[in-house]
Amino acid sequence: MCFIWDCTKSFARRHPKCFVGFFHPFTVLFVLGCTVFFVGLQMFYVVPELFKTDTLMYKLAWIAAIFITYNILGNMLACHLTDTSVGSLPKDRQIPEPGEEPMWDFCDVCEKPMPPRSWHCVLCNRCILKRDHHCIFTATCIGHNNQRYFFWFTFYLALGTGVALTTHMLVVLQYCSYFDLVTRNIDSYRRLPSWLYLNLFVTMYAFPAPAAAIVVQFLALRLNGTLHDLYSKTYDLGIRKNFKMIVGERGLWTFLSPSIKSPLPHDGTKWETKDTDISEC
Ligand SMILES: [Zn+2]
Ligand SMILES: [Zn+2]
């Protein structure tokens, strides 16, 4: 698995245009296809095994499914459409103010100065404000301006696949007892419909990836870090301020919808640290 990952990274570095042209449409379609597949499976096959389709519970399940799907796809789209490059700054903020020069770096590729915590991305071919990583599933870089959307995108992906896994397990328990499953009673497995057995298998593999992604995002949020400096406490301002630095002034309300306006505390060029009040960094 590591070998495939290393080969993919190496190919991306050597042929960024080819990588973006081929992998981005493929991975975006993969997320869209999987979302439609799991919602359809869940609402037309799995949930009706738990609740009759004319009950209030089934209708509530539909509302929950639509809410989660809207937030997965809405945050994914917002993530892709939000420009988080240094070029998104007003012209006068693309150069350091007097006194800031020592804290800024220079990008040899763009041949322009870049603010602290910014990195050049070979796939986007731009410098990204507080670059976290390049996400192939949203076909863009994750940085200062769109990390909010990526955070909730991974959260709802993990929630959706987690709910799917739980409901699959509940349906399985209707066909055979917990004791039979634990003791691997082969007769109990034979009682499961083949579609349920197959779906359970697929769902078990779908859950770990978004669950791991949201855990990493929580780790980054905890210390106001990025994927590159997960355990650095340099920019840690306390959990409340760190959270607002990612999701903006509206805080937890952003949980409800990507359309909720939530201005970030700053433009991504001045980073307050533990040691300085407002580091003109
Ligand atoms: Zn650059
Ligand atoms: Zn990128």
Question: Which helices and strands occur, and which strands form pairs?
Answer:
Blueprint: H1 2-14, H2 16-50, H3 56-81, E1 105-107, E2 112-114, E3 119-121, E4 126-128, E5 133-135, E6 140-142, H4 147-175, H5 178-182, H6 186-191, H7 194-206, H8 208-223, H9 239-247
The chain binds zinc ion (ZN) (2 copies).
One zinc ion (ZN) binds next to loops.
Give a list of the ligands.
zinc ion
Nearest-integer average pLDDT: 85
Radius of gyration: 22 Å
Number of helices: 9
Helical coverage, percent range = 40-55%
For the biggest sheet, the summary is: 2 strands, antiparallel
- Total strands: 6
Structural class: mainly alpha
String of helices and strands = HHHEEEEEEHHHHHH
Poorly predicted segments: 277-281
SS strand fraction: 5-15%
Q: How many domain units? A: 1
User: End-to-end span in angstroms?
Assistant: 39 Å
Strand order of the largest sheet: 1-2
| Apparent shape | elongated
